[in-house]
Specification:
TIM Barrel, 251 residues, 12 helices, binds 3-hydroxypyruvic acid, alpha/beta, binds magnesium ion
Length: 251
Amino acid sequence: MNAMIAQLALGRPLIGLWQALAVPYTAEICAGARFDWLLFDGEHAPNTAQTLLAQLQAVAPFPVHAVARVPIGDPVYIKQYLDIGFSTLLVPVVESARQARDIVAATRFPPRGIRGVASATSRASGFGADSQFLLTAHEKTGLIVQIETRAGLDVLEEIAAIEGVDALFIGPSDLSAALGHLGNPRHPDVQSAIDDAIARILAVGKPAGIFALDADDAVRRIAQGVSFVSVGTDIGLLGSGARALRARFPA
Ligand code: 3PY
Ligand code: MG
């Protein structure tokens, strides 16, 4: 079983930090800060397979789950991200059971799925050292899908029921936009849609995750039963720390 998904089942909420700076040096610092998981963002950060690989190597010595978000649930990105060694993927904007099924298939080698086959040349196989890699890769792969549109909300249970969808993750920013409140995830309509989505994910017995708006929001979501939470971003920490330090001196 995928290590992060297995740990989610133990009941302690996993505290994550979003990585959008796209550089290994800061990823190493954040991994050393003992977060349970780090999210390396291929959707909205200036990442390539090369920059993601460098960050993955930088955090490898630390006991942290490295999760990568693909730009879109496309088999080409999915195989590249898996080949460089991410074992847990976050896929944005999942809106139907069929799409979820196709994404699961993209994570698995034939005959289980359609993942293109590389073994001896991929970092995921230890560059060929793992002789069982092609047979066992699917067992270590974790798939988290994002629910962040009306369409996704409408069929949440159908998406959650797809075998291979290991967890569901709420994206408050896109959801706000989808509900007509762009830039205002704290709007009561957005908040009640999130409350409802979390309750529905928990009701079907899958782990729920969320990008928290701040640490207090994270605490509240954990109390609701969310089991993995991104509690901030590398950019937010650097920006707020820099501004606070500068503000202690005359302008
Ligand atoms: C969103 O909020 O839309 C996300 O994708 C997670 O930050
Ligand atoms: Mg989003």
